[in-house]
Structures are given as structure tokens and as C-alpha cells.
Protein: Tellurite resistance methyltransferase TehB
Amino acid sequence: MTQQTEQDFSKQYELTAPHSEVVAALPFVSGRRALDVGCGSGRNTLYLNSKGFEVTAWDKNLTSLARLNHIIETEQLNGIHTAEKDLNSLRFNGAYDLVLSTVVMMFLQPETIPQLIADMQASTVRDGYNLIVAAMDTSDYPCTLDFPFTFKSGELSNYYRKWHIVKYNENVGQLHRTDENGQRISLRFATLLAQKGSVKA
Ligand SMILES: C[S@@+](CC[C@H](N)C(=O)[O-])C[C@H]1O[C@@H](n2cnc3c(N)ncnc32)[C@H](O)[C@@H]1O
Structure:
């Protein structure tokens, strides 16, 4: 099978490019099994698969999953396992080298987050990685959107205090959504790449 690049899929199937943090994380991850938590139409799943990963991809949106499944079938891709899952009512375990969730957690119920992160961590092999990007609500960039959940400053990194944090920032980013003046809405996003089992005592 010829390996596809993310650009091929983006153009051909009108997907947005894979999240830049997924691209940036890839050189760190040595394994080959990934879990995409809230995969949407699969821009990150397809990218990882094109780089040789076997990817399990979960989302609750059947339209998005159908779009991804259409690409998988059309391109006869191997090693992508999609499933409809509601993260608000899910417990799971596994043995993945990379568990990722980009721009998903702000759509979940607040009470979901602690157990979801615990399950993501438990599903990661030793020396494996978690990558999370999620919206925040801070005093300088208050979240005015109706997201059920946003991280506070330091909250996401605190969940990973026993892991080796490779990258963590709370930089300002822009949503595609616009405000009443047509300006794209700016928010802080918590971005974390952490490796399991490498914490210093
Ligand atoms: C902004 S999209 C991001 C998709 C993908 N991670 C990406 O970066 O392209 C947010 C995704 O979260 C999914 N989502 C929201 N609530 C969910 C839930 N309760 N269970 C599973 N997926 C959910 C949505 O269906 C949507 O695909």
C-alpha cells in the first residue's frame, strides 16, 4: 500500500490539516498503537495511520464517523478501528503508545474529565504518551462560549504531575467561531504532551 500524506487526505476529502500538536508530538512517540479520543472526521487518525500507526478512533458523532469510514473504505486503509462512543458514559482500558484528544474536552461534562483522564493514563503503556489540547477559562481570556467544561490555569498539568511533562503551555489560540463583530474568538488552550513512567522522585 502506498503511504498517504495528510495533505492528500486534506485536499481530497476536504479535511482540515492534522492538529499541529499531533505533528509536533510524532517524533517523540516510538510505538505504533494510538487511541484518538474524540476523533471527529479523523484528520489526526488518518495522519497517524499514514505514519504507520494502528489507530483506534472514537467519537459520538455518527456523521463524522461515517465520513472517516468512507475514507477508510475508499482508500482501503488498514489499521484504523472506528467506533461510536459517548465519552460522558465510558470507562476503558488498553495498551496504547499514544493516547490523544485534541479540542474535545470542552464539549464534555465536567464530571467526566477526572475519570476520562485517569482512563487515558491507565490505557497508556509505560513510556507511552498522552497528548491533550483543550480550551481554558482564565481571568485574562474568559471563556464566553457555552462549553460545558474548560480547564483552569494549571489544572491539566496537575493531572500529569506524576508523568514526565515534555511540553505544557496555556497559549492563546483562536477558535473558528466569531464574535458579534465577526472577529475570531480568542481563548487560552491548555496543551500537554506527557510521557508515562518517567517522573523524577
Ligand atoms: C472540535 S471536534 C475535534 C475532533 C478531532 N479531535 C480533531 O481535532 O479534529 C470535537 C469532537 O468531539 C466530539 N465529542 C463531543 N462530545 C463527545 C462525547 N460525549 N463523546 C464522544 N465524542 C464527543 C465531537 O463529536 C467532535 O467530533
Notes: The longest helix spans residues 62-75. The chain is about 25% helix and 30% strand.
